[in-house]
Amino acid sequence: MKDTNGIDPPLVRLEAAELHFPVGGALAHLRGKNTVVKAVDGISFELRRGESVGLLGESGCGKTSTGRMLVRLDKATGGRVEFDGQDVSALSGNALRRFRSRSQLIFQNPFEALNPRFTIRDVLCEPLENAGVPRAEYEDRILRAMALVKLGDAAQFLDRYPHQLSGGQLQRIVMARALILEPEFVVADEPVSMLDVSVRAGVLNVFRDARAQTGITAIYISHDLALVRYVCERTIVMYLGRIVEDGPTEDIVANPLHPYTQALVAAVPVPHPDQSHDPLPIGRGAPDPRNPPSGCTFRDRCPRTFDRCAVEAPGPTRVENRIVHCHLFETEI
Questions:
Q1: pTM for the complete prediction?
Q2: What pLDDT, in 10s, does the model give residues 152-167?
């Protein structure tokens, strides 16, 4: 159903969404220590149907936590996560089961994502059984899913166990398991990071082609800008639980605006061995997530910080076709 402007409503919508984890044990508060890690700290964005969006940032920025919250493997501790207009946190019973059929997660490590005691046939039948799909449809669904991930000769795989397949084949099985219920939304959590470089391109092509054939909405989580650029039209950059920049991938690569995004682009390896690499425009490592800096969490690494950054967290500012969370742009506009 379109809104008053004739635009389809977003399939996924986050509004000030939070995911906080208590740490340090029951007595931590008595020692005066921060007992909460703000893995996701009040982020907001929307995904339109059919979009392919990259979630980019270094380790510990909250990418995976955001993905798990989107498919409700972890329940949001604050804010709102909506899927097709429904509050995901409020779902239970049959409504939650229907949601899980419509949204799926492709796990990062295929070697840990599959039960070693299950044959590949069992692996693919399990989600069908959990979703209540009639048994008469199992074989057809399995064959379609195997073809979608380019494992067309299904007979040679279905009666094998996970340890009998290569890493690339296993990751395609993990994709097939996620796609077999014909979901509308998929979160892919660094699906090629555990694979040899020689097979990554093939698996990425499978992901791109499957998304194009099915028209699913997808979040692709990665720390690798080159991979995000290959599979996603739009990119959301995160740092320490917050969004810092959101816009078209090619524009972010060609002209990054936020100082952190500039550092990510500058860190991309130079392909020519004799070409020098300029020093990164940021200093030191990421701070302790249990005790992040006040105001802008990036300020202690930012080369352009000023007084306001220490006392106030930057809000979203639209700069042409992008959203940037940085006081520099609030000042300039």
A1: 0.91
A2: 788 889 999 999 999 9
